[in-house]
Design a protein that fits this description.
- There is one protein chain.
- The protein is α/β, with parallel strands linked by helices and 234 residues long.
- It contains eight helices and six strands, in the order βαααααβαβαβαββ.
- The chain folds into two domains: 143 residues, Rossmann fold (3-Layer(aba) Sandwich), CATH 3.40.50; 67 residues.
- Strands 3-2-1-4-5-6 form a six-stranded parallel beta sheet, with helices on both faces.
- α1 crosses α4.
- The two termini are 19 Å apart.
């Protein structure tokens, strides 16, 4: 009988991904952009087109969604759509807790009770005008604030995930202050990040398949895949 997935023995620090792992950012992105498009007298867009273009900077994702949907937009029109999107996005996540994944909160709570350190590492920038969408504000304004001790945002370093240097900028080349680390995420980039750190990863499959994972050599040796983070034992 297979054993349930678990954090590696002696794990001291969990490195959490934010978007798609802790936060249902895809649902927010889809709903906010469709509402914004309606405001601009444009038709709503099919979900698969959103999923095809939900990566990287949000400005690039919005432009890519419009292109794939065949909605021509001048640079001025695109700037207006993006501006209105951020206003609506800020309002959507004023109540962050309703957009958090309960299975992630469950695991984070159990890990906290077990005395594990938990940090968030995300390519989402803090910025100066992100409002409720800043990773620091998202954590501070939600149930996560009592279990997350550190937050590394995309503009905190010259490096970005999946590069190990992203963590080194805060915790030093040896990452010695973190002890034994495990990464929890939902995308290929999180597995690649774990590989670069030299640790194991647990990926939650929020969709049927985690794209591009097979391009990582021997990923099965250090990645566990679960359909719910409630499955993971601490």
């Amino acid at each position: 009988m297979d054993r349930p997935p678990q954090l590696p023995a002696d794990t001291q620090t969990i490195v959490w991904d934010l978007d798609g792992t802790l936060l249902d950012s895809f649902g927010i992105y889809r709903d906010c952009l469709n509402e914004t498009l309606l405001k601009h007298s444009r038709p709503a867009i099919q979900e698969q087109i959103f999923r095809n273009n939900h990566h990287g900077f949000i400005e690039d994702s919005i432009a890519a969604v419009l292109r794939e949907a065949g909605q021509v937009a001048t640079s001025t029109e695109l700037a207006a759509i993006i501006k209105d999107f951020y206003v609506l996005d800020n309002a959507y996540i004023a109540n962050v807790d309703q957009h958090l994944f309960e299975d992630a909160l469950d695991l984070a709570t159990r890990a906290h009770e077990a005395g594990l350190r938990q940090i968030v590492v995300t390519n989402r920038p803090h910025g100066t005008d992100r409002g409720n969408g800043s990773p620091r504000n998202l954590v501070a304004n939600s149930r996560l604030h009592s279990v997350i001790s550190d937050i590394l945002c995309g503009d905190d370093s010259a490096h970005r995930k999946p590069y190990r240097q992203f963590l080194e900028a805060r915790f030093g080349p040896e990452l010695s202050g973190l002890g034994k680390v495990a990464v929890i995420g939902d995308q290929f980039v999180d597995a690649e990040f774990a590989h670069n750190i030299g640790c194991d990863a647990i990926l939650v499959a929020r969709t049927e398949k985690i794209p591009h994972l097979e391009s990582l050599e021997n990923w099965q040796n250090y990645v566990q895949i679960v359909t719910s983070l409630r499955e993971v034992t601490v």
